[in-house]
Amino acid sequence: MQRYSGFGLAKHALSHHENWQRQWRNPTPKKRYDVIVIGGGGHGLATAYYLAKNHGITNVAVLEKGWLGGGNTARNTTIVRSNYLWDESARLYDHSLDLWKGLSQDLNYNVMFSQRGVMNLGHTLQDMRDIQRRVHANRLNGVDSEVILADQIKEIVPIIDTSKNARYPILGASWQKTAGVARHDAVAWGFARAADALGVDILQNTEVTGFKIRDGQVYGVHTNRGDIESKTIGCVTAGNSGVVAKMAGLKLPLESHPLQALVSEPLKPVLDTVVMSNHVHGYISQTDKGDLVIGAGIDGYLGYGQRGSYATVEHTLQAIVEMFPIFSRVRMNRQWGGIVDTCADACPILSKTQVKGLFFNCGWGTGGFKATPGSGHVFAASLAKGEMHPIAAPFSIDRFNTGALVDEHGAAGVAH
Amino acid sequence: MFYIHCPYCDEYRDEEEFHPKGQAHIARPEDPETCSDEEWGDYLFFRDNPRGIHHELWVHAIGCRKFFNITRNSASYEILETYRMGERPRFSAEHPQGESAEHGAAVNVADEAGRVADQEGVRA
Ligand SMILES: Cc1cc2nc3c(=O)[nH]c(=O)nc-3n(C[C@H](O)[C@H](O)[C@H](O)COP(=O)(O)OP(=O)(O)OC[C@H]3O[C@@H](n4cnc5c(N)ncnc54)[C@H](O)[C@@H]3O)c2cc1C
Ligand SMILES: [Zn+2]
Is residue A415 assigned to a domain? Predict the structure, then answer.
């Protein structure tokens, strides 16, 4: 792999940037791999990268039915934070935040991780009590977190409406200074390029259509490009996980829902942090290009259509205009949907299954982008050792039968 | 945007009047006290989540406030039918073109009569 550098940029300028090498190979599938990862989103690619880098397992294939990052990875609103309530999730997301900090250097790829801070607003006394509780829990877990009040919010975000006569007055917020955003497709590409350089085969347009299972042990997959064998398979297929699980005769505690995002026409810089509100239900940030990136809640019904309903768009924009009356006349440029795999406790599944050798990494729902490096890191360790990594262990599928849920819903102000 | 026929109001109304409530026809275990953790967890949390034909429970929240069922394709979003509580769907993954109307109706009537008779103390 040719490393990217300032010097390289100058060198390629001399040949009019026409001689850059491809970022990754386009290999033909081998018959057999040590590990197969299904799903070429950020989590799958990160898993493959850490398998190769940290565990020396390089005979790995990533099977992606479409193109890299074409799932939720490059459809999300790119918010990265770690101020979750419970110990288990705080460990998982904070581990990820630690990896984000050095990710561009580690991958030699600019993922544009920008620690511009994230605030979660409170609009009622109960909101503020919940925020206090979560911030205290965060601090006990060593997660950067503080409570700020309306005047401090106004100082950080002058364009927000903190007046008392707002329909939903802003009383305060939790504030994680070290949180922020990253460029989502660069995350998929960066992991792909770095994994490929270590020998991982990245196979796009390769759809898994079934599993080969004998005596309760998985030993391969059927794909549209023929059968491929491996005794260790990690499924990292987000919204499609229920469909893939069914191919192995498994059922998951998941429902797949459309989640939408919108971007506006580009504006001059007006918002240099991320503002989220669970109460009026919307969140917003501004890209370096100037577009406002806006998102909100899922459509309540099951759906695989990668599009959402107009009613949801309307609610989302109502929330944004409630917080930022100044945006009332901004025009939206584009709108799209992704299919998020939601669990009842709003926490992911990182787990073995009843089929030996078959693991799932899914259930990230509306908020897994932030966890991309951490999830890949602990899932790779689990696949390498055949035992779940201690940070991943609480997120077993079994929790839905034992009752040991990690109930982030409601507790963490869990939107994304 | 869905335009949904409420089988109780017998009118097509805007999606905004309704709320989806998840997979339909999930029977509560007869005797929860004797359920294993396995059975209880399955009942509470595990879902079919199909890409394709799905039976789901909806409520006409700001209309008649009654619950009813929809058979819908979760990929194309096409609504194949709406039907009342206690009725059986005509369309299903096994019968994507629908069973004949007479068959469906006949089953409904027999079923519901049976269910009423089964309930102790119920006198029609
Ligand atoms: C609109 C929106 C906004 C969001 N905002 C945020 C946010 O601000 N912050 C945050 O942290 N998270 C956010 N999320 C959630 C986040 O995007 C996801 O949790 C995360 O990207 C999941 O990554 P993944 O790699 O697991 O899944 P994906 O990127 O969806 O990758 C799964 C891949 O599996 C492939 N696949 C599926 N079936 C098969 C098969 N049979 N064979 C081969 N390949 C298959 C798919 O094509 C897909 O590429 C948002 C999501 C959406 C939709
Ligand atoms: Zn009605």
Answer: no
Using a 6 Å cutoff on CB, does residue A65 contact ligand 1? yes
Q: Are strands A274-277 and A118-122 parallel, antiparallel or unpaired?
A: parallel
A308, A292: one domain: yes
Kindly list the domain boundaries of chain B, sorted by start residue: 3-118
Residue A19 maps to a domain: no
Q: Kindly identify the ligand whose nearest atom is closest to the C-alpha of A368.
A: 1
Tell me the CATH number at A91.
Answer: 3.50.50.60
CA distance A243 to B120: 41
Question: Is there a single domain that holds both residue A92 and residue A126?
Answer: no
Q: Which of A242, A305, A401 sits opposite B75 (nearest CB)?
A: A305
Residue of A224, A319, A192 whose CA lies nearest to A262 = A319
| Residue A244 falls inside a structural domain | yes
CATH topology of domain B3-118: Folate-binding fold (3.30.2270)
Residues A70 and A219 reside in one and the same domain = yes
Ligand nearest to the CA of A92: 1
Residues forming beta bridges with residue A229, ordered by sequence position = A32, A220
pLDDT tens, residue order, chain A (416 aa):
789 999 999 999 999 999 999 999 999 999 999 999 999 999 999 999 999 999 999 999 999 999 999 999 999 999 999 999 999 999 999 999 999 999 999 999 999 999 999 999 999 999 999 999 999 999 999 999 999 999 999 999 999 999 998 999 999 999 999 999 999 999 999 999 999 999 999 999 999 999 999 999 999 999 999 999 999 999 999 999 999 999 999 999 999 999 999 999 999 999 999 999 999 999 999 999 999 999 988 999 999 998 888 889 999 999 999 999 999 999 999 999 999 999 999 999 999 999 999 999 999 999 999 999 999 999 999 999 999 999 999 999 999 999 999 998 755 554 55
Q: Are A337 and A59 in contact (CB under 8 A)?
A: no
Beta-carbon contacts of residue B113 (< 8 Å; ≥ 6 apart): none
Specify the number of domains making up chain A.
Answer: 2
Q: Give the range of the structural domain holding residue A302, as residue numbers without chain letter.
A: 118-180+256-343
Helix (H, G, I), strand (E, B) or coil at B62: coil
User: Distance from the CA of A276 to the center of ligand 1, in angstroms?
Assistant: 21
Chain A residues whose beta carbon lies within 8 Å of the beta carbon of residue B37:
401-403
Do residue A216 and residue A264 come from a single domain? no
pTM of the model: 0.94
The chain B residue lying nearest A303, using CA atoms, is B74
Q: Is residue A233 part of a domain?
A: yes
| A254 interfacial to chain B (CB closer than 8 Å) | yes
Q: Which amino acid is at B5?
A: H
Most A-contacting residue of B15, B19, B51 (CB-CB within 10 A), to test interface: B51
